[in-house]
UniProtKB/TrEMBL annotation:
Coiled coil: none
Keywords, ordered alphabetically: Membrane, Transmembrane, Transmembrane helix
Main location: membrane
The protein's name in its UniProt record: Complex I assembly factor TIMMDC1, mitochondrial
Residues spanning the membrane: 120-141, 170-192
Compartments where found: Membrane
InterPro entries recorded: TIMMDC1 (IPR055299)
A biological-process GO annotation: mitochondrial respiratory chain complex I assembly
Record's GO cellular component terms: membrane; mitochondrion
UniProt superkingdom: Eukaryota
Species whose genome carries this gene: Triatoma infestans
Repressor in keyword set: no
Family in the record: Belongs to the Tim17/Tim22/Tim23 family.
Length: 246
């Protein structure tokens, strides 16, 4: 009987149907790959913690940096021109004293610096913001960055930037923008290949840097509040001691 029972168990194990690897009920469900538009939509989506995406932070920082660079460039160029014109036009002008001449020169230079900064900051901010937005969206849609994204992004940004100049301005702006995008894309992709990094790593690094800066700012504000509370408590304590002594 033991022999028969053991043989029956072995036969049952041998003849029992084995799990079919092709059976859909037994194959683990794999996550569906994210579609192209889902990756694009994720850029402009706020997560459950209320934080924006690293790509959107990159767009914001680039737009701010180009606005700052344009303000510096336009302000310095126009203030220099105003300085030279003021010296040229007022060589024979008689002022009350040299303080009046310096004051008028400073007013002229400051006013023209503000005009040049305003004129160039919003222009470069629009171009830089559009360029980075187009490149980021195209890279997210295709799943990986390429020189094509930079070229198309520069062409679209240049065309929109020169749209008020008519069809000729759109063509010229698109051509120059495509050339600039090709140049910038070549440098960016070459640096990424040399360093062995990806564009996602760059976005994550910028995101972590902004989060670290925000934490430091919150800690500084918290320390300042604690110091104010401590000082107010000490003043209250001193006032109580003085009242008790009296």
């Amino acid at each position: 009987r033991p022999t028969f029972r053991t043989g029956g168990i072995l036969c049952t194990a041998f003849l029992a149907p084995k799990p079919n690897s092709t059976d859909p009920a037994l194959v683990p469900l794999e996550e569906k790959p994210t579609s192209n538009w889902d990756r694009v939509r994720k850029i402009f989506t706020i997560d459950e913690f209320g934080a924006i995406s690293p790509e959107l932070i990159t767009i914001y920082q680039t737009t701010f940096f180009t606005a700052f660079a344009g303000a510096c460039y336009g302000g310095f160029v126009q203030s220099r021109e105003a300085y030279l014109k003021f010296i040229e036009r007022n060589q024979a002008t008689q002022f009350v004293d040299h303080f009046e001449a310096k004051k008028k020169l400073q007013d002229c230079v400051t006013k023209n610096f503000a005009k040049g900064a305003l004129r160039w900051s919003w222009r470069l901010a629009i171009f830089g913001g559009l360029y980075v937005t187009f490149v980021t969206v195209l890279s997210a849609y295709r799943g990986r960055p390429s020189i094509f994204d930079y070229t198309i992004g520069g062409m679209l940004s240049g065309s929109i930037y020169q749209m008020n100049m008519g069809l000729r301005g759109v063509i010229v702006g698109g051509t120059l923008g495509a050339m600039m995008g090709l140049f910038a894309g070549s440098i960016s992709l070459t640096v990424l290949r040399i360093t062995g990094s990806t564009m996602d790593d760059v976005h994550e690094w910028r995101y972590e840097l902004s989060q670290k800066r925000q934490r430091h700012l919150e800690e500084a504000v918290e320390k300042s509040d604690n110091r104010n509370i401590d000082s107010s408590l000490l003043l209250h304590h001193d006032a109580l001691l003085n009242s008790q002594q009296k």
